[in-house]
Design brief:
Helices cover 35% and strands 25% of the residues. It contains twelve helices and 13 strands. Strands 1, 2, 3, 4, 5, 6, 12 and 13 form an eight-stranded mixed beta sheet that branches. Helix 10 links the parallel strand 10 and strand 11.
Length: 385
Amino acid sequence: MRVLGLLSGTSHDGIDVTVVDFEESEGALHGTLLHEDSIPYGPELRARLVAALPPAPTTLAEVCELDTLIGQAFAEVAATASDAVGGVDAVCTHGQTVFHWVADGHALGTLQVGQPAWIAERVGVPVVSDVRIRDITVGGHGAPLVSFLDELLLRGRAGVSAAVNLGGIANMTVVGPDGLSAYDIGPANALVDAVVVAEGLNERGYDADAAIARTGTVDDALLTALLADPYYSLSAPKSTGKEHFHLDYVRAHVDGVRSSIAPADLIRTLTELTVRTVAQDVRAAGIRFLAVSGGGCHNPLIMQGLRDALPGVEVVLADELGAPVDSKEAILFALIGWCTMHGVAAVTPGGTGARESRILGTITPGAGPLRMPEPVARVRSLTLD
């Protein structure tokens, strides 16, 4: 079955897409990557999305319009990718997260926009969507869902190994003799991106190759204040997002330490925050193998910082596991789509805190009747090429 995976992550800069051709035999799943791409949001749409995100106020009218506009954008990306490989059998879309509701350490709700009916209409095949909420209904955080893929890719390694994804938010999956643990560590690129955009430091909206951070120095007082955030001391499972880590959060911390700070020094300090928070959790878990993915793995200061801070850890890119660093999460949603269509629960309770596994998502039929394939009992292994 060919499944197309779609998402826009917490960096909300565009739409990642992949097409994976899955073959299954007695629970052993093999995926062949047929197509991968990343399409930036149009400037106007991205500006509207950013303006509507917390802590900014918005309206239900704006949420409705964004749901349609992002759904249409996803539909065009999906149609182009499907045409490029000669058609697909199903689509799984994550959509765009606009709010993740966490209170007293528990996830209570999550909202992704990007109406899947536009994708189903445009591509003509079933679309799996709204994949996080079912996990939340059984006590999970709905995140990090990538722990399901990580566990399959890391399974069988000796000792304690982990995969960390450095998107807007950093999340980590730890696999060892005692089982699986996964959670959101804290901000990876979210705070840097917010400052780059607010200060108009470049047109890209992020610090490409750490060009800005390289010209600054770490402000130790500000870094100490940022590291004191109680979120970092919470036990897993836990999840977070831009509801907590956003531009006003940065400004409040700066104001609490000094009257002003040079933008380059602020970017350098926020970059170091990511290195420190990831490294301290890697050390605490006794990890010896760390596979890194997401946009942050292209930041040389982050990668070198992690290697310097973790001399006893083998730090590699996720490509070594068969999952390209820029497509790994899109591959995840293709995998979730395949699992949902085959009746497989694509979540590991230890990864999200859920009491039990659940089949994820809602299915929107395509152009014809909805015909489900024969169910599969479970996925016991996965290989990718």
